[in-house]
TrEMBL record:
Keywords: Coiled coil
GO molecular function, one term: malate dehydrogenase activity
Compositional bias ranges of the Polar residues kind: 55-66
Chain segments carrying region Disordered: 55-83, 754-773
Protein known as: Uncharacterized protein
Compositional bias (Acidic residues): 755-773
Record PROSITE patterns: MDH (PS00068)
Chain segments annotated as coiled-coil in the UniProt record: 238-265, 496-523
């Protein structure tokens, strides 16, 4: 059924082919294709698998000792001449390497190439020499492309065409790839003109939101920019690739010896497959890849499928795979014994698994995206289908190299982990160990560490599942015996029962008094009636007081039950992840790796703890505080293991590579603690790192994280002191650190006393005021007692006893409610017991005093006023060339304009324009709009005028 389902999907995934166009004619205009069109016509034309050994040789990376291929059997009459040509061309190629002593500038290299080739043309026009020249130009284009010299690669291609040579197919493929390289090498920020074009149809408040979103993401990588900017990049990429393909077809058309059409179809699909790979690598939609296939009438081969699998997402992955399995290509791959067949199988495996990993990353790793169980289940079905089908189709294929085998199983383990599938991860590792190739003597299997490390990436999924826990799940778990017998729950239950008993007694008293007063035969004197009414008033007061207590206790009781249930559920999910990690580590031990002293394993595991914190940063909300002690126990446990290995001599901190790995390990640990909002634990980790490495200096990223932590606590002085520490150590701070301090200062200036951080609004602490209300109620009860006391002197002794009992209950209830449910339950589970590092007792300086000392020592000159902040931005640019982000500058400028502080605004504008790229395009566009709202002013009105 699953196969039929995906087959129905794939038949709608791709459009049918259009008739081939005449030779040399431009491609028809592209239109948006829909997934409801048929695909069978496209894939039914797959040619038989051809021997691609020559192509594999062409695709090898160009090394520093490049040599131009020689003909296997050159004519004897020109062999000496050919060797001379090869030597000359090799010299020209070597001169293109930037790290070569013979390197020459691009323009000089072009001139030398032209002179050398022109001289060769005058000496010989043999076919063999021409072939060597074409191959040499191909190598030159490869060298230039590898060094990101895109313009030089294009100029070399144009030069060879001017000299009458035809670019090879591989040369055209590199030129297609260079389209993306050129776009990515361009300016990081979107230009003002492009931004105006993108926002020309946006109006009103939406424009403000769009430009602020662009400002916020201006410094991010291309794939993390706004949708409008990413779409603009794709538009230009597609246009450039299409132009390059047109040039390829025109070049092939002019070549009388090369027919580009055979029976109405393009005979060579190399450049087209490269275009598909470029699209896949740069996030172009799968639908757009299909449009390219249709418009260019691409003859589908095995490399086409590899590119399509890399660009597919979700259901498009099994849809594409199903079409591949229905073709003859799989059969030809399985029976082939050439090395290229093994490489094609590797590409299919790796690209299919990468597509699954990318699908998971795009959907579940976003900090703002919601996670739904149906999406998780869907992706898991995709993996199970793809893994099963590929395993079945290529069960008999033996990989040509150990590297191919390792890479396939590494990606399989990574994809299974990316879907949170524990059983498949274990199965894949078992298969990897069982079928691994033997070493030369045939006694031991050759195993890589990478598949096991990738399997550890399953750990964050335990917290993704925690994220999906609902209150209904917690309520159902709260009915279990271990929740009901929780000391905190029992304590709350006992107090609740006592209050309910008093409440029920008071209600019974009221009912009895009402029956006496309202009885038909009641003959009550005035004194008796007054006494009964007095008792009724007291009972009513008791009902009101105890009802409030009962409501508070009931809410706190339910809160404690749900909290304990959540903690148990979190503990169970994490323990299951721990068992998976233990399985992987056992496999590593069996494979011969020393897990105890292998820092790669420790770093990978700590990285997963960090990823767990980062993924849950904005999505766990209140529950995140309950996850942090569970996670920090694991962080501290791993740190203690590494610390023990260092102290025992298993790890040499004097070794440069080991020291670098230790810094990275602690960097991940500190980041985890910061992201889980554990300030004391962060300080403890920093001290432990300094003890082990024997230095007080931290890694730049650690300083960034500590600054982030300080700013979130509105401790700008401490954040600034950390910046000063970096300066004293000669470290260049990041623009992100400058941004956080600037925004922290602005927020601290703007926050009012009513907006300060206050926990009184939380459920637990809000209920702690019950004791105060009880005192008010008790005072009211005392007033009633004073009124009645005149007529009921004989009951004074009883009331004194009741008052004493009530005061004791108040005290007991207050003590109970003043204890945090979270702290009480964490103590029950002993979550804080493991938060201790080896050797921490040797330090007498507490985390708080250490932070205070740092602040007093270095943070006294932290910026305070808005003028200080402007100077702060200028100082760090002058010291290290750190340019402030646009997202840093815009809030500062907005506040200056809001307060009409035009002199300081003019100063800041002058500072930014004196920097190289200080005034970013998005900032400039925002300023234009904002200033136009101030009476139609422009930037020129605030720039310095030349006298």
């Amino acid at each position: 059924m699953l196969r039929q389902r995906y087959m129905s999907i794939v038949t709608r995934a791709l459009p049918g082919l259009r008739p081939s166009r005449p030779r040399g004619a431009p491609p028809p205009p592209l239109q948006l294709l829909h997934h409801d069109q048929a695909v069978r016509m496209l894939f039914c034309r797959c040619p038989l698998l051809q021997d691609s050994a020559s192509r594999s040789a062409e695709q090898e990376s160009v090394s520093n000792d490049i040599s131009v291929p020689k003909s296997s059997s050159p004519p004897p009459s020109i062999s000496d001449q050919r060797e001379t040509v090869v030597a000359r061309l090799k010299t020209q190629c070597n001169a293109l390497y930037e790290d070569n002593e013979a390197f020459v500038a691009p323009q000089q290299a072009l001139s030398r190439w032209f002179q050398a080739v022109a001289a060769l043309q005058s000496q010989s026009k043999s076919l063999e020499v021409n072939q060597e020249v074409e191959r040499a130009y191909e190598s030159a284009v490869a060298i230039a492309s590898k060094q990101r010299q895109v313009e030089l690669a294009s100029q070399l291609t144009q030069q060879m065409q001017q000299l009458g040579y035809r670019p090879t197919e591989r040369t055209h493929e590199m030129l297609v790839r260079n389209v993306a390289l050129k776009l990515r090498r361009g300016p990081h920020e979107t230009s003002v003109g492009d931004l105006r074009e993108l926002l020309k149809d946006v109006r009103g408040d939406m424009w403000e939101r769009e430009i602020m979103s662009i400002v916020e993401r201006e410094a991010r990588p291309l794939q993390l920019k706004t949708e409008r900017e990413f779409a603009l990049f794709h538009e230009r990429l597609i246009r450039g690739v299409e132009a390059q393909l047109n040039e390829y077809e025109r070049t092939a058309e002019r070549d009388e010896d090369q027919k580009i059409e055979c029976k109405g179809q393009v005979s060579s699909s190399g450049p087209y497959n490269e275009a598909l790979r470029v699209y896949a690598d740069n996030g172009v939609k799968f639908n757009r890849m299909l449009q390219l296939m249709v418009a260019r009438s691409i003859a589908v081969d095995i490399e086409t499928y590899g590119a399509l699998l890399l660009g597919a997402r979700w259901n498009a992955i099994p849809a594409t795979l199903s079409q591949l399995l229905q073709s003859k290509l799989v059969e030809e791959l399985t029976v082939s014994t050439c090395a290229s067949a093994s490489e094609h199988v590797r590409v299919l495996w790796v690209n299919a698994m990468k597509a699954i990993v990318y699908s998971s990353t795009e959907r579940f790793n976003s900090l703002s995206a919601s996670v739904y169980k149906r999406d998780i289940d869907q992706l898991r079905k995709v993996f199970m289908f793809v893994d099963k089908q590929l395993s079945s189709a290529f069960a008999t294929v033996q990989f040509a190299t150990t590297m191919q085998y390792d890479e396939v199983y590494t990606m399989r383990a990574k994809a299974a982990a990316a879907c949170g599938l524990i059983a498949p991860v274990k199965r894949i590792l078992d298969e990897y160990v069982q079928h691994a190739p033997f070493n030369e003597d045939g006694k031991k299997r050759v195993l890589s560490k990478e598949p096991f490390l990738m399997a550890l990436e399953i750990f964050p999924w335990s917290l993704i599942e925690v994220l999906m826990l609902s209150r209904q799940d917690a309520l159902a778990r709260a009915e279990s015996h271990d929740v009901a017998t929780s000391p905190r729950v029992l304590e709350m239950r006992h107090m609740y029962d006592r209050v309910m008993h008093k409440l029920d007694t008071a209600r019974t008293t009221i009912d009895e008094i009402e029956q006496q007063v309202n009885a038909d035969d009641a003959e009550l004197s005035d004194d008796e009636l007054r006494r009964l009414l007095g008792w009724q008033n007291l009972a009513n007061e008791t009902v009101g007081r105890e009802s409030q207590r009962a409501t508070t206790l009931e809410r706190r009781l339910n809160n404690a039950r749900v909290l304990k249930a959540n903690q148990l559920l979190i503990k169970e999910h994490l323990e299951r992840a721990d068992r998976t990690v233990a399985f992987v580590l056992d496999k590593l031990l069996e494979a011969g790796f020393n897990v105890g002293t292998d820092l790669d394993v420790s770093i990978k595991l700590m990285e997963q703890y960090m990823n767990s914190a980062r993924r849950l940063d904005k999505r766990l909300a209140q529950r995140q505080k309950h996850v942090s002690p569970h996670m920090m126990r694991r962080v501290f446990s791993q740190v203690n293991l590494v610390s023990s290995a260092v102290r025992s001599g298993g790890l040499d901190v004097q070794d440069a590579e080991t020291r670098e790995k230790l810094v990275k390990f602690f960097e991940y640990a500190v980041c985890t603690a910061v992201r889980f909002w554990c300030e004391e634990e962060t300080e403890a980790l920093v001290r432990q790192q300094q003890r082990l490495l024997g230095t007080s200096q931290l890694a730049p990223r650690e300083y960034d994280q500590l600054i982030f932590q300080s700013v979130t606590n509105l401790d700008v002085h401490r954040a600034h002191s950390l910046l000063q520490e970096m300066h004293n150590a000669g470290m260049k701070p990041s623009s992100e650190a400058i941004h956080r301090i600037a925004l922290g200062l602005l927020h601290r200036r703007n926050v009012s006393s009513n907006d300060e951080f206050d926990m009184s609004g939380t459920e637990e602490d809000g209920e702690d005021d019950t004791g105060m209300q009880d005192e008010v109620d008790e005072n009211r009860a005392d007033e009633v007692d004073a009124v009645i006391q005149e007529n009921v002197d004989e009951e004074i002794s009883g009331k004194d006893i009741a008052a004493t009992t009530e005061a004791a209950l108040d005290s007991e209830l207050s003590d109970l409610l003043n204890v945090s449910d979270r702290d009480a339950i964490e103590n029950e589970l002993e979550l804080r017991e493991g938060l201790k590092l080896d050797g921490d007792d040797a330090d007498n300086l507490s985390p708080e005093s250490a932070a205070t000392a740092r602040t007093l020592l270095l943070g006294s000159d932290a910026p305070v006023t808005i003028e200080d902040l402007v100077g702060f931005l200028q100082d760090w640019y002058n010291l290290y060339g750190v340019k402030p982000f646009g997202k840093t500058v815009v809030p500062v400028m907005a506040q200056l304009l809001d307060t009409s502080n035009f002199s300081e605004f003019r100063r800041l504008l002058q500072i930014l324009e004196s920097m190289d790229g200080g005034l970013t395009p998005a900032t400039e566009l925002w300023l234009e709009k904002r200033l136009s709202q101030l009476g139609g002013k422009t930037l020129d009105d605030f720039r310095l005028k030349n006298k």
